[in-house]
Design goal:
three-stranded antiparallel beta sheet; single chain; 147 residues; alpha+beta; 19% strand; binds zinc ion
Length: 147
């Protein structure tokens, strides 16, 4: 059986008590390489009460364990932050929305270009969303063109 230590450490680092429910939800989010919506988590954890999932996400967000992403699909997606993240403007990074499989990816290592705002405007957050075809879908496309 896989150890929960990595999830417990992540939770404790953000001052969140590592209950088994929180570990379960964090693990479900870290299991997949893309961002998940509330509905995705409800599907994945169909034995868990929906309001518990919602409350847990709200707690995770408020402690900067995860961040929300508006990808234009209509539902907010959530992704686990890197462990040093404070969710400040400096921690903002590029997001990618695949128009084929509708998955949203966090590119935590790709910084957002510096933007010069007109005088008097103060930046508080930034949403940098690239849209296109993800590598999985691009690979599939290659295969189908061979057939
Ligand atoms: Zn895709
Ligand atoms: Zn992200």
């Amino acid at each position: 059986m896989e150890s929960n230590q990595v999830y417990i450490e992540r939770l404790e680092k953000k001052n969140i008590k590592p209950t088994s429910m929180r570990i379960l939800i964090l693990r479900a989010m870290m299991d997949v390489p893309y961002a998940v919506s509330l509905a995705d988590l409800e599907d994945k954890l169909d034995t868990v009460d929906k309001s518990t999932i919602f409350r847990t996400l709200t707690l995770f967000l408020s402690r900067h364990l995860i961040h929300g992403i508006e990808d234009g699909s209509g539902s907010l997606k959530y992704e686990v932050c890197s462990s040093e993240c404070e969710c400040s403007v400096d921690d903002m990074h590029t997001h990618f929305y695949c128009e084929k499989c509708h998955r949203t990816f966090c590119f935590k290592r790709i910084q957002i270009p510096v933007i010069d705002l007109p005088e008097g405007f103060i930046m508080e957050s930034i949403n940098y969303m690239v849209k296109g075809i993800c590598s999985d879908c691009a690979g599939k496309e290659d295969l189908s063109s061979c057939i």
